[in-house]
Amino acid sequence: YKSETGHDEL
Amino acid sequence: MNIFRLAGDMTHLASVLVLLLKIHTIKSCAGVSLKTQELYAIVFATRYLDIFTSFYSIYNTLMKLIFLGSSFSIVWYMRYHKTVRRTYDREQDTFRHWFLVLPCLLLALLIHEKFTFLEVLWTFSLYLEAVAILPQLVLLQRTRNIDNLTGQYVFLLGGYRGFYILNWIYRYLTEPHFVHWITWIAGLVQTLLYADFFYYYFQSWKNNKKLQLPA
Question: Which ranges does the record mark as transmembrane (chain B) (predicted)?
Fold first, then answer.
């Protein structure tokens, strides 16, 4: 599982 | 959104706005590296392509638009504004910035999480951001004497990096599966590049002197 949440950063 | 992330974003925003305001009001870009500013414009343009494909929050979209707008405005001022462009230290700002772009692109093609167009460009923007400050640091070293605003600009950018690292530690501890090696290593490299500058910045602040970098 790889989280996509890193992309919610600027 | 945690407090470190917000503080990081705000110092990042402040750094760009301080620079734009300086250029706009005093009509001078002395001491500012156009090479670094062009690299940041490329960083934002390649990273924020996802405003067309995914939506996170109004905050996220708004900030992306501000960063895109302000970075391209700075480049426009330095290249085309009839007064500002004359104050640009063209002869001193000689860093071959394309030599940073190509290796970063190559690295992004080799090391990424997913091989898709957006993901490779996003990864490229992380690598490029890590080294984009180099032309500015070289220019600071060459001109040695730095006016307060240019010093503050780099100081704020360094602050942004520091807060982002705290933000990653916080997210790693509080969010399940928050592991982003590429982002972290690129971010760490970027922060280390500021360490040298920070050393001299604090020295000058402690001694209450104008910031001078060694040749």
Answer: 55-77, 98-115, 121-140, 152-170, 182-202
Instruction: Assess B178–A contact: CB distance below 8 Å, yes or no.
Output: yes
Report yes or no: B157 and B13 within 8 Å, Cβ to Cβ.
no
What ipTM score was computed for the predicted complex, to two decimals? 0.82
- Given B67, B122, B177, which is nearest A10 (Cβ)? B67
What is the rounded CA–CA span in Å between residue A6 and residue B140?
Answer: 32
Shortest distance, CA A5 to any CA of chain B (angstroms): 7
Among chain A residues, CA nearest to B183: A6
Chain A contact present for B180, CB below 8 A: yes
Going B191 to B28 to B44 to B95, the CA torsion angle's sign is negative
Structure tokens at B153: 């600009």
Distance CA B191, CA B127 (A): 12
Least Cα distance to B75 among B65, B83, B63, B84 occurs for: B84
What does each of the 215 residues of chain B score in pLDDT, given as a tens digit? 899 999 999 999 999 999 999 999 999 999 999 999 999 999 999 999 999 988 999 999 999 999 999 999 999 999 999 999 999 999 999 999 999 999 999 999 999 999 999 999 999 999 999 999 999 998 988 887 667 778 889 899 999 999 999 999 999 999 988 889 999 999 999 999 988 788 877 777 777 777 777 76
